[in-house]
Amino acid sequence: MPHITLHTPLGELTVFEEEGAIIALDWGRGVGPADAAPTPLLREAAAQLQDYFDGQRTQFDLPLNPHGTEFRRKVWDALRRVPPGETRSYIDIAREVGCRSPRAIGQANGDNPIPIIIPCHRVVAADGSLGGYSGGEGLATKRYLLALEARSRAGAATGELPLSPPNPPPMGGQPQGTPR
C-alpha cells in the first residue's frame, strides 16, 4: 500500500493512501518494500502536515476515506468540524451525531485511523479535562497539538513558535515513501 513517512516534532508519522484517498496515519515508520515513489497525494499530505507543524496551516484539504462503520464515520466527520485550537466534549459530539452515549463517541474517537488530520485530539471530557490520547506520547502529545493550534490561530502575526514537543526526536532527512 502506498505510504510516506515524514519527520515531525512528534517523531516519525506515516500516511497511507488507497485508491486516491488518505486512509490512515500511524505513529512511526511504515514498513514494506522501498521500491515505489510516493504518489502526488502522499507528497501533498506530507507538505500539509509539515505546514501544520510549522504553524502555517490549521486545517487540511485532502481526500479522506477512513475505514469504519457508518456511525464512526459520522463521528469522524463531526471531529473535522471542530475549529482548530478549540475543543468539544464527548457529550457535545454525541449530541451533534444524535447519539446518547458519550462512551461510544470515545470509542469511535479512539479508533480514528487518521489522527491529527481528523482531529481527535480536540475532544475532551465534559469537565474540560483532557481525557486520554493514544497517539505519540499520550497526553503530552495531545497538549502539544492543542497548544500548536491555539498558537497558530492566535499568534500567527507574532511569529511565535509552538511549544516544545514532548520528548522531541532527532530531526533530519526528507519524507520517505514506500509501499506497505
From TrEMBL:
Domain Methylguanine DNA methyltransferase ribonuclease-like: 5-65
GO cellular component, one term: cytoplasm
Other known facts: This enzyme catalyzes only one turnover and therefore is not strictly catalytic. According to one definition, an enzyme is a biocatalyst that acts repeatedly and over many reaction cycles.
Residue ranges occupied by any Methylated-DNA-[protein]-cysteine S-methyltransferase DNA binding domain in the UniProt entry: 70-150
InterPro entries, per the entry: MethylDNA_cys_MeTrfase_AS, MethylDNA_cys_MeTrfase_DNA-bd, MethylDNA_cys_MeTrfase_DNAb, MethylG_MeTrfase_N, MGMT, MGMT_N_sf, WH-like_DNA-bd_sf
Bias type Pro residues, positions: 163-172
EC nos: 2.1.1.63
General function of this protein: Involved in the cellular defense against the biological effects of O6-methylguanine (O6-MeG) and O4-methylthymine (O4-MeT) in DNA. Repairs the methylated nucleobase in DNA by stoichiometrically transferring the methyl group to a cysteine residue in the enzyme. This is a suicide reaction: the enzyme is irreversibly inactivated.
Classification via SUPFAM superfamilies: Methylated DNA-protein cysteine methyltransferase domain (SSF53155), Methylated DNA-protein cysteine methyltransferase, C-terminal domain (SSF46767)
Region annotated Disordered, chain positions: 156-180
Keyword flag Ribosomal protein: no
Active site (UniProt): 120 (nucleophile)
Superkingdom of origin: Bacteria
Family matches, as NCBIfam families: ogt (TIGR00589)
Localization per Swiss-Prot or TrEMBL: Cytoplasm
PROSITE patterns: MGMT
Similarity field: Belongs to the MGMT family.
Main localization category: cytoplasm
Higher taxonomy: Bacteria, Pseudomonadati, Pseudomonadota, Alphaproteobacteria, Acetobacterales
Keywords: Cytoplasm, DNA damage, DNA repair, Methyltransferase, Transferase
GO molecular function, one term: methylated-DNA-[protein]-cysteine S-methyltransferase activity
Class of this enzyme: transferase
Gene Ontology biological-process annotations: DNA alkylation repair; methylation
Name used for this protein in its record: Methylated-DNA--protein-cysteine methyltransferase
Catalytic activity: a 6-O-methyl-2'-deoxyguanosine in DNA + L-cysteinyl-[protein] = S-methyl-L-cysteinyl-[protein] + a 2'-deoxyguanosine in DNA; a 4-O-methyl-thymidine in DNA + L-cysteinyl-[protein] = a thymidine in DNA + S-methyl-L-cysteinyl-[protein]
